[in-house]
Amino acid sequence: MDMTTRYLGLTLEHPVVASASPLSGTLDGIRRLEDAGAAAVVLPSLFEERIQREREAMQGLSEVGAESHAEVPGGYFPSASLETIGIGGEETLELIRRARESCDIPVIPSLNGTTARGWTHYAKLMQQAGAPAIELNIYYVAADLDESGQQVEDRVVGILEMVQSEVSVPVAVKLGPFFSAPGHMVRRLVETGAGGLVLFNRFYQPEIDLQAMRALPTLDLSTSAEARLPLRWVGILHGHVDGAAIAATTGVQGAEDVMKFILAGADVVMTASALLRYGPAHMKTLVTGLRAFLEVGGYETVDQARGALSHKAIGDTAAYERANYLQVLDSFRTADFHP
Prior knowledge:
Blueprint: E1 5-7, E2 10-12, E3 16-18, H1 27-36, E4 41-47, H2 48-55, H3 61-67, H4 89-102, E5 107-112, H5 116-129, E6 134-137, H6 149-164, E7 171-175, H7 182-192, E8 196-199, E9 206-209, E10 214-217, H8 228-237, E11 245-248, H9 255-264, E12 268-271, H10 273-278, H11 282-296, H12 302-305, H13 311-314, H14 317-331
Parallel strand pairs: 3-12, 4-5, 5-6, 6-7, 7-8, 8-11, 11-12
Antiparallel strand pairs: 1-2, 9-10
EC number: 1.3.98.1
Domain Dihydroorotate dehydrogenase catalytic: 95-294
Keywords: Flavoprotein, FMN, Oxidoreductase, Pyrimidine biosynthesis
C-alpha cells in the first residue's frame, strides 16, 4: 500500500501528522512520536506574547498581551492551551535545530503573533534555524464590535503577506471556522500564496465558575463529534484550492476519523488530543488502521481514496448541502423519541 503524501513541499511516508501539543515540545517527545510512526510533527506555537513576557517578566505584559487581542476582559482569551505550554523563543529555535539534526521526519514550527515585527522576525529566525515549513496559527477572536468581517479577513491576509515577504519556505495558515464566508477567506489566502490550510483552529471556550463568580478559560480534549465541522469544509474545498494543501484537524480520535478526512479530500490529517489521551503509541494504531481501511476499500494508493467523497466528486455543493439538511431534519420524528 502506497500512502506517500505531499504536504507543504515535503514528501511524507503517510498522511497522519502529530499536531502541536506538549508531546512535541521537547526533542524526546518528538522522537517518541517519530518512533510511533508520525509522518511529521508540528511544534507548540511560539507566541509573540510569550517572547515579550520572557523579556520583561514581572512588568505586567501578560495583561497587555491579553488586551492586544481585543478579547473580552476578564479571561475569555485562554492563558494556556495545548499549544502554548512551556516553550519560549530561544527554546523553540534550539528545538528546531536539534530536531533537524536528530530526526528523519519533518518538524514544522508554529508561530502566533499580533504585530508585523512579531510575525516576520520570528518566522525568519525559524527558517534560519532549519524549519522546512512554517505554520501560522491565527488564534484571533473578533470580539471588537467595531471591527467588520472585511477587516478581520484583511488582518489575516495581511499577516500572511508580511510573513511571505520574509521567508522562502512554504507557509500554512491555521484558521478558525468563524468567517462569514470561509471558502472566500481560503481563496484569498491561496491567492496570497499560502502553501497550505489547516482546518480548523479549535478555540477554547470560557466557563463560568459560579462559586468564584468569574469567567475561566477551559481546556477539553476534542472528540470525534467535533470532526464534522472541518469534515464539511475539507469536502467543500477539495479540488478548489489548487496549489495549496489541506490539513484536517480537530476531532481525530481513531483510524475511522482519519479515513473520513481522506475521503473528504484532506492531504494530511493531524491529531493532538488522541495522542494525549492514549499516548504517542496511538499513532501506530491510526496509521495501521488507515492502511486497513484503504485495503478493504480496494485502493492501491492513498491518492486514489483522497477526495472520493468530496463535494466536488459527489456533485453540486449547494444542492448537496441543502438536500442533506432537509434529509437530516426529516429523519428526526417525534415518534422516534420516548420520554
